[in-house]
Specification:
The protein is an alpha/beta fold. Helix 1 packs across helix 4. The chain is built from eight helices and eleven strands. The model has no long low-confidence stretch (mean pLDDT 90). Strands 1, 4, 5, 6, 7, 8, 9, 10 and 11 form a nine-stranded mixed beta sheet that branches. Strands 2-3 form a two-stranded antiparallel sheet.
């Protein structure tokens, strides 16, 4: 099966405007994300954006990007427009990778793609174990309740998604910002209006559940931080700069 990775991105984010072009180790955050997607090596990668500045940045860093309309309500609407511009009838799976998670694990991207193919799922996503109880109350971290306890090989259905919960159930996980659609499922999803629960909680995955589109969930190895606030960006920047310095140090030691 042939997969296309689409990364929606825009400068006018409500909570942290301009974040796709914030620099980490001399490269924009959006360019870090598409490079991760390319390293996963599961298919072509395309950034979908309403901003020419993002297109220029992505292309400068060796990536592909397409210009989309500004009126989209969600990232999924944006990637669907990009898919239509792509003009490739051979695409079977469309992966929507969030542009604000530069620490997404490459193996997790590959695992989601493999699980979709193996299980012939309509729609799949990833989640990781919650190790900090404060996560249950944090509205910036989306949680998912699954039908079964996740392990490294299963791909059970999601029952619900939430921003906060008083429960500390073993089947509640930290939801990651990545989705993989069968192309036909994406077309169906886009045809539906926003559901009341989606509008209320600002979680577009609830549109799928409200319209009986089943979502499978795979266990992720890592819990990358999404950049929603300036504090998030500072934390990620420190992690990535530290990793870069460590890699350079190891490379220097091995070269001498």
């Amino acid at each position: 099966m042939k997969t296309l990775i689409l990364i929606p991105s825009r400068l006018s984010a409500t909570r942290l405007p301009g974040k796709p072009l914030f620099q980490i180790n001399g490269i924009s955050m959006i360019s870090h994300v598409f490079k991760k997607a390319e390293e996963a090596n599961i298919g072509e990668v395309l950034v979908a954006t309403e901003d020419q500045e993002i297109i220029d940045d992505v292309k400068k860093n060796g990536g592909q990007a397409v210009l989309t309309r500004k009126q989209h309500k969600t990232g999924t609407d944006r990637i669907y427009e990009a898919l239509k511009q792509f003009h490739n009838a051979d695409i079977d799976l469309v992966m929507n990778l969030q542009g604000d998670e530069p620490l997404m694990n490459i193996e997790d991207i590959r695992n989601l793609n493999n699980q979709m193919i193996k299980n012939r799922s309509q729609l799949g996503t990833l989640a990781s174990k919650i190790t900090d109880k404060e996560v249950y109350k944090n509205q910036n971290i989306v949680k998912v309740l699954t039908k079964e306890k996740l392990n490294n090989s299963n791909f059970p259905f999601a029952i619900n998604f939430m921003r906060e919960t008083s429960q500390q159930n073993e089947n509640i996980y930290h939801h990651l910002g990545v989705y993989c659609f069968q192309k036909e499922t994406l077309e169906k999803f886009i045809s539906y209006d926003q559901s009341p629960s989606e509008a209320k909680y600002k979680l577009e995955q609830l549109r799928a559940i409200d319209n009986n589109i089943k979502i499978n969930v795979g266990l992720a190895k890592s819990s990358p931080i999404g950049v929603d606030t300036e504090e998030d960006f500072i934390a990620i920047k420190k992690i990535m700069e530290y990793k870069s310095k460590w890699v350079k140090f190891i490379f220097k030691e091995l070269s001498e």
